[in-house]
Amino acid sequence: MSLFQPRLAFVLIGVMLLSTLSPSVQAAQTQEVECQVGTSASCPALSAQEIYNLYGTTTDGTYYLKISGSATQVYLKMDRTNTANGGWILMMKAPRTSTSFYYDSTYFTSNTTSTGSALTNDTTSDGKSSAYNSVPLTGAIVAFSNPAVGSVTNDGDIASNGFGGWVWYETFTAQSMYTRLTTTQNIYSTYATVRNSLYRNSSNTAVFSYQSGYGVYGFNHSTACGAHLFRWGIIWNNEAAEDGSCDDHIGIGLQNGVIQGDQPNWNGVTAASGQNTSNGYNGGLGPMAFQLWGKQADPAFGTPQTLTSTPSATQVNLSWAAPASGTVNEYVVQYKKNSTANWSGASTVRITSPTGSPTASISGLDQGTLYNFRVWARSTSDSSATPLTGNATTGVATISQVTLNTANPVYRSPSILSANVNAVGRATFFAQGKPIPGCKNILTTISLATCTWAPSQRTYVNIMVTYAPVSLPNQSSSSSMTIWVQGRAIGSKKR
């Protein structure tokens, strides 16, 4: 079953009330309609990793995350192959011909703007996601591709990576990409300390041009070396000190008039492998396309406790306790048949505004079937790292104990027949082997089948009711009784 396939099971939507200390004030808990977390604006995920935890999703594409309190569509790289475990949000992108991402561009400096479409995994157009502005991140990747001169391979900090180019990868304390690229931080400040994977391949061959006198690598570099500015990049100098005469740089968010990419501007640079210093970029690769990706922290909220299940024929009622610490905003409940190998197509319901004794009612289940359940807790911005798990086997739907509301039914006087059932189904009542008018194939409640009967004979009458649950219409059962129907009282009007 795919992540987007509709569910066959019905979900009972109920509102449960919990009395507070004041008898006139009550807190409401709501079981929302079934949804697939992360696939719609009405059911956003809190993080890309939460989607993976819930469904094991490794399919790249557009999803919905809750950003600054609102459901926002983003492009996620969920494939975990050579991508540092997937779950990356596309923050920015630009083709090599773009002029929208210079150092002083508001797309870098503003935490409110967005531009273009950041919902497709390409470098054919500009794009900035609103996720850049406010989503707390613990890591980021910039991927360079499609240079004007020469080529780059899928290498860098992640060899044979899944980002389609040369990547730089940095981790940092949780902060937005906006904060990271507007806060000055020099990670490496000499040529000797700039790590090779930023500009050399595994054979120690230069991929980008460089100079060996001095190097500065980091974020938001805006001082010294003349106009060699960057939001994320490296500048090089042939001399052993940064003295305002740096000659070579690469990165994103470079100074006005220079498109992001490998931009040596002096012939004294060490040329990139295969390049000639006599070309238009002095041995460099020239402008390049880029993508900027960000990753959130893995979920770390507590796990709910003490799952209890109460099954019937087609329903399981669940209850549990809150995590040991933290304020729970809602719960996510998943369920699947035990015979289903994984959770990729699991059904999911959310319990919002939960009470101190949260519950869920999962209905429309198959009879006599073992189901697996998982319960996750959510705060306003985090979700459980691991779920509370449990199993329950549904019973078999039956009908029993057909009864009459009076011990002495009267000829042609209405009486109420009822029978106990344990699932929603269809019932037919018979008198002397013939269906009672108006009592054929009637819909039952989850626990009761009823019928109004006006006896047409004064004799012993055999009453029988047949029943088949909706979930298994071919599985029928019956119950019967025999009762004496007496005549009408003397003096009553004859019909």
From TrEMBL:
SUPFAM superfamilies: Fibronectin type III
Keyword annotations from UniProtKB, A to Z: EGF-like domain
InterPro entries: Fibrinogen_a/b/g_C_1, FN3_dom, FN3_sf, Ig-like_fold
Tagged with keyword Heme: no
Gene3D superfamilies: Gamma Fibrinogen, chain A, domain 1, Immunoglobulins
Domain annotation Fibronectin type-III: ranges: 300-397
Name by which UniProt lists this protein: Unannotated protein
